[in-house]
Design goal:
Structural class: alpha+beta
Oligomer: single chain
Largest sheet: 7 strands, mixed
Radius of gyration: 19 Å
Number of helices: 10
CATH topology of the largest domain: Phosphoribosyl-aminoimidazole Synthetase, Chain A, domain 2
Number of strands: 13
Distance between the termini: 25 Å
CATH class of the largest domain: Alpha Beta
Number of domains: 2
Strand content: 25-35%
Shape: globular
Strand order of the largest sheet: 8-10-7-11-9-12-13
Order of helices and strands: HEEEHEHEEEHHHHEHEHEHEEE
């Protein structure tokens, strides 16, 4: 059989595997399915929202990263992150200082998102070339305020906060600095690497601000673009809703340093990991309130496209529509 590529499982393979899961518990409102990053379990008048994700592209501040990417998934369902569990597999060359650093970074990130570290596991793993980590974040939201993608319908707007490729740009500047140093100056690489912190990879504020501005029913789905970038996230948003989408390529914000670093390696800026951005499917009458609230909170936000009822995801460029690529393997995997 053909070996699998590095990155997410192919879309159809994942769909086939998830179809094997049978959930009979009526309290489970959202179970494992393509396009949803969280499970949602009803408990009284509230819902428990839980997400689990690893960080594998980089070992730089891996504890901090893992907290934020899991908090992002929970917030994208309208919930506030509250409790975190960590699984840390230290490389067999790790020392006590590295273990302390990972632990402290987890605590720092939990403080930033308002969550509490409540458990997990940490060990040194034989023959592991570098430390890897996975985490689970749990959050809560009122039952009538949880946001799934089931309610997305044709005609709704697609809003994007911040910009495409934010996290990927920082990872390239950090992990490939030596290779880039002959083509890009050290100050530019420093700026790109710091994008992780400013504007940052968290979308908790983005999501909660948007939900408050929209009120009940104004937002029918949110999705944070991780592996596969903004392009893949738009596909996932549409697939989860059983719809299609079209976006205006020229309206998607892409930083100049993102374009430059991607050009060096021949990568598509829309296909690199993009934590820090948030896609929002909103009722058209709520879009103005949402974007104004985000801008007032210091979060760039712009309408980039629309949901359409028929299947298929495209982008508009120079008056023509083209199929929007889907990257089951993140573009960074080709160079890292």
């Amino acid at each position: 059989m053909t070996p699998l590529s590095v990155g997410k499982l192919p879309h159809e393979l994942l769909r086939k595997q998830l179809a094997k899961i049978k959930v009979d518990d009526t309290r489970v409102l959202v179970a494992s399915r393509v396009g949803e990053d969280c499970a949602v379990i009803k408990s009284g008048g509230r819902c428990l929202v839980t997400s689990t994700d690893p960080v594998t592209f980089t070992a730089e501040r891996i504890g901090w990263y893992t907290v934020h990417v899991n908090a992002n998934d929970v917030a994208a369902m309208g919930a506030r992150p509250m409790y975190f569990l960590a699984t840390v597999l230290l490389a067999d060359a790790a020392d006590e200082a590295e273990a302390d650093e990972v632990f402290d970074d987890v605590l720092d990130a939990c403080n930033e998102v308002g969550a509490t570290l409540v458990g997990g596991h940490i060990e040194v793993t034989a023959e592991l070339p570098r430390t890897i980590m996975a985490g689970t974040m749990l959050g809560e939201v009122e039952s009538d305020r949880v946001i799934t993608k089931d309610g997305i319908r044709g005609g709704e707007d697609i809003i994007l906060t911040k910009c495409a490729g934010l996290e990927g740009t920082a990872i390239l500047a950090t992990e490939k600095r030596e290779e880039l140093s002959g083509q890009i100056g050290p100050e530019a690489l420093d700026r790109a690497a710091k994008l992780i912190y400013d504007p940052g990879i968290s979308v908790v504020k983005d999501a909660l601000t948007a939900c408050e501005a929209a009120g009940k029913g104004g937002i029918h789905g949110m999705h944070d673009p991780t592996e596969g970038g903004v392009a893949t996230a738009i596909h996932e948003l549409a697939d989860a809703a059983g719809c299609g989408a079209v976006v205006d390529y020229d309206k998607i914000p892409i930083r100049d340093d993102t374009r430059l670093l991607c050009k060096v390696f021949g990568l598509d800026p829309l296909g690199i990991i993009s934590s820090g951005a948030l896609l929002i499917a909103s009722e058209s009458q709520a879009t103005g309130n949402i974007t104004r609230a985000l801008l007032a909170a210091g979060i760039p936000a712009v309408k980039v496209g629309a949901i359409r009822p028929e299947r298929g995801v495209g982008f508009l460029k120079d008056g023509h529509e083209f199929a929007l690529p889907r990257y089951d393997s993140d573009e960074l995997a080709r160079v890292l």
